[in-house]
């Protein structure tokens, strides 16, 4: 899934060390798939191969996405007392609230109250209040972080995402994603396959530049019909005032019927005059003028919190010394550096030989690494 041009990835733990860099020519092969030949012999087939650099870039991208989604939120706090937050990461627990029930939980509750459950990450939602532990979860399931909850959060808005369903095809993400990208509508916040919804792009720069450089907001075909002025936003950087357009002028052009609209720098182009503001109010999309609703604001706050909590290597070393002592910290860093060195040697050797790294190679490397640790353990102890 992606939002405003950025891919959405599953959260991953914080990195414990700086990523290693390797030549782009080196390749890692995905696990082999076994197939049976006509004569009954097993044949190993390579599914796909990627370079080490691509793997590291993917991991870095996953880490950055996780930081943006969770960096500004406390993993040990239920956000219910904060009310209907302008924007927060929301999850659905299919285990506790299967269809037709719809409910959402905050980041802290997803970790503390629903560990081991079937959880669907919904990215972020606006004006949502945590449901964890209310009657939707049954009489016996209570929130472990904040138990006192009302019967319902009457202003929460739900859709089929809370059943794990996405797009007009009701695909269950990620099982039914089939490799297609999904984008989130700026208005209704539902998700759609880009291949299932034809779209028109409205550029911010009139010069021919790569569109991926321009952050774009997606408005699905259904929401374009609700706020048809979107279909008339011209390309360029000018603010678009639509309050004086007649109802006839605001009709969605026939060629754009059933199409989504991708508008670069969408919120920057919206007019804030009294007439246009009234249109947003009537269309129930006044949140478009709220800076706290904007994903960019949400991500900026996450970046600031992550940056403020990052420790230097010296600070990490001092904390480790407090926990395990000087000798224990020394052993840890020796082991970490040795792993980096051996893995780099392993990859470089395969690159020099011109060989792909197979699943068996990885297993052998792990066994040799473990054997080395076993031999050193008596001496280190």
Automatic annotation (TrEMBL):
CDD domains per the record? PHD_UBR7 (cd15542), UBR-box_UBR7 (cd19677)
Q: Could you tell me which InterPro entries the record lists for this protein?
A: UBR7 (IPR040204), UBR7-like_UBR-box (IPR047506), Znf_UBR (IPR003126)
Zinc finger (UBR-type) residue ranges? 76-148
Residue intervals of the UBR-type domain: 76-148
Q: Which GO terms describe its molecular function?
A: ubiquitin protein ligase activity; zinc ion binding
Bias kind Polar residues: ranges: 18-27
**Basic and acidic residues bias: where?**
1-10
State the Pfam families in the record.
zf-UBR
UniProt keywords, alphabetically: Metal-binding, Zinc, Zinc-finger
The UniProt annotation puts the region (Disordered) at 1-27
Full protein name: UBR-type domain-containing protein
Q: Which organism is it from?
A: Caenorhabditis briggsae
């Amino acid at each position: 899934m992606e939002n405003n041009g950025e891919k959405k990835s599953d959260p991953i733990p914080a990195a414990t060390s700086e990523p290693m860099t390797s030549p782009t020519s080196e390749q890692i092969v995905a696990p082999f798939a076994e197939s049976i030949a006509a004569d009954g012999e097993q044949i190993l087939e390579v599914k796909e191969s990627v370079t080490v650099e691509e793997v590291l870039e993917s991991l870095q991208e996953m880490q950055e996405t996780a930081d943006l989604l969770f960096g500004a939120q406390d993993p040990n706090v239920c956000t219910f007392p904060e009310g209907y937050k302008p924007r927060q990461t929301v999850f659905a627990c299919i285990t506790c609230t299967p269809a037709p029930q719809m409910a959402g939980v905050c980041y802290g509750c997803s970790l503390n109250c629903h560990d081991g459950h079937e959880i669907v990450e919904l990215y972020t939602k606006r004006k949502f209040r945590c449901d964890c532990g209310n009657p939707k979860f049954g009489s016996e399931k209570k929130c472990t972080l904040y138990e006192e909850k009302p019967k319902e959060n009457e202003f929460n808005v739900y859709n089929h995402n809370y059943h794990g369903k996405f797009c007009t095809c009701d695909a269950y993400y990620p099982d039914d994603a089939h490799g297609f990208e999904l984008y989130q509508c700026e208005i209704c916040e539902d998700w759609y396959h880009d291949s299932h919804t034809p779209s028109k792009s409205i550029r911010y720069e009139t010069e021919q530049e790569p569109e991926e450089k321009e952050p774009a907001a997606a408005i699905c075909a259904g929401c374009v019909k609700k706020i048809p002025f979107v279909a008339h936003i011209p390309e360029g950087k000018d603010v678009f005032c639509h309050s004086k357009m007649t109802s006839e002028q605001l009709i969605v052009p026939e060629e754009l019927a059933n199409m989504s609209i991708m508008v670069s720098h969408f919120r920057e182009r919206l007019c804030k005059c009294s007439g246009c503001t009234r249109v947003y109010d009537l269309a129930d999309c006044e949140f478009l003028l709220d800076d706290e609703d904007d994903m960019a604001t949400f991500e900026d706050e996450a970046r600031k919190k992550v940056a403020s909590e990052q420790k230097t290597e010296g600070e990490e070393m001092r904390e480790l010394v407090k926990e395990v002592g000087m000798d224990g910290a020394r052993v840890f860093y020796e082991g970490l550096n040795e792993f980096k060195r051996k893995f780099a040697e392993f990859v470089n050797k395969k690159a020099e030989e011109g060989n792909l790294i197979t699943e068996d190679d990885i297993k052998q490397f792990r066994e040799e690494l473990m054997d080395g640790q076993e031999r050193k353990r008596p001496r280190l102890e």
